[in-house]
Amino acid sequence: MPGTVLLLAASPVGKGSLVDAASVLPVLAAVSPAVLSGTDTANVVELADPLEPQAVLTRLRAAATAPGPLTVFVTGQLQLDRRQRLPHLALARTTPSTVRYTGFPWHWIREELRLRAPGGTTVFVDLHADAETWQHLVTQPLGVGPGVRLYGRVAPPPPRRTLAMPTYMKSVATILRSGHRPEPGQLHQQALTRVSGEEPEAVRRDLVLAVESGASEGSVPFVPAPAVPTPFIPAASPPEAPAPFIPAAPPGASAPFIPAAPPGASAPFITASPPEASAPFITAAPLPEAPVPSAPSDPHAEIASAVEAGRHGDADGLAARWEQDALRTYGPGSDEVVHWMEVRADLAMFAGDAVRSCRTWLAVADARLGAGQSPDAPGVEAAVDRAHHQWGRIAEAAPARELGAVLAELRARVPGRRKGALQHVHQRLEQLRATQQVG
């Protein structure tokens, strides 16, 4: 089975840049796709200094849903948004004051990779952080989610007026250019040995990321190891103001879009009890009472296999049984129940059922708000954004009107990061009402 490789190099344009991220791409691009991926053949997607978070999300989501092994190489710099203090990958037009709108939230990587089979995804990173972000990462290590192998380093900011070089990633690329691809852990150790030779101070300085599949995430001090094993279109930087909200349009329409996603989905789901606040409450058909299967050690692997084979009903049925078990064990609104609701929302999307996916994401947002999460919490924003995206793909007028009314109420509480989201919902609802009256 062919593999997929995503090469992402990003840093702000101008004086805000800490690292010459794009300089590593020619070296990586010189490596055979098969060697980059560790498979017989591979598709390679390159993103050089992207401008829009949504463009990165689109490429990442497409790569994450592709069958076969996935290898991601990320080079760039991290910054915290001032409101939620969450790390973001700084993009071409990111500044300290616009990180929340112009950077790529790091937790989106975890979100997009969560349905992949354990052991099938490897992420290599070479990242630099500003002083504030560096201090944050010392106590709250970077991660990409369970089941994903993560290797690399995070370096503190270079001296003033100095542009750092991505020496770790260049070392990885240089090793791979030999035509031999060591196992990821061995490749990581060999790259660290090269870095220690070029940057001796890295031994005392860097945070090294070495997380095997299924292990707990975390950063460890740099320890040099022996070399022996134990389609992007660049553009000029635009103004620094936040980009306008551009949501997805239903088939045949010309409206823009919000987080892109592959086609897919169908079938209702369970929801948490309604919150005491004014958040809308979505109900749906009850879940089956079937017991949780004796299943593999990680049910996500079986679900991912079913999706890859096109057995969307089987995938949803398995996720529904785990959701039901979580409901009985942990109760409505628990993290475990919400997790399986989110899995089923994604499965509905993959199956092409935009109505069910939208309905489920609305209920996820409702459950999170009901559990006391704030309207600007990442999980709440992500749920409403995805509900909005799926709503834009609904062609049937009746469910679009029904779910649009609920989405409008949620958007009033959860405006999200993109301007004009609530306005877009109202505009489309007016169009749907006008069409109904004419009909």
Descriptive overview:
The protein is α/β, with parallel strands linked by helices. The chain folds into 2 domains: 3-221, Rossmann fold, CATH 3.40.50.1460; 299-438, Alpha Horseshoe (Serine Threonine Protein Phosphatase 5, Tetratricopeptide repeat), CATH 1.25.40. It has helices spanning 25-29, 33-37, 53-65, 99-102, 107-113, 131-139, 167-176, 184-198, 202-205, 299-308, 312-330, 335-351, 354-370, 378-391, 397-413, 421-438, and strands spanning 3-10, 42-48, 70-80, 87-89, 104-105, 121-129, 148-155, 207-211, 219-221. Strands 1, 2, 3, 4, 5, 6, 7, 8 and 9 form a 9-stranded mixed beta sheet that branches.
Kindly provide the name of the CATH class of the largest domain: Alpha Beta
Content-based structural category = alpha/beta
Total helices: the number is 16
Q: What is the number of beta strands?
A: 9
What is CATH's topology name of the largest domain? Rossmann fold
Assigned CATH architecture of the largest domain: 3-Layer(aba) Sandwich
Q: What is the end-to-end distance?
A: 50 Å
Radius of gyration: 22 Å
> Residue ranges: pLDDT <50 for 5 or more in a row?
214-274, 276-296
Beta-strand percentage range: 5-15%
Helices and strands, in order, run as EHHEHEEHEHEHEHHHEEHHHHHHH
Count of individual domains: 2
- Can you tell me the overall shape? globular
Give the helix proportion (percent range): 40-55%
Main sheet overview: 9 strands, mixed
Mean pLDDT: 79
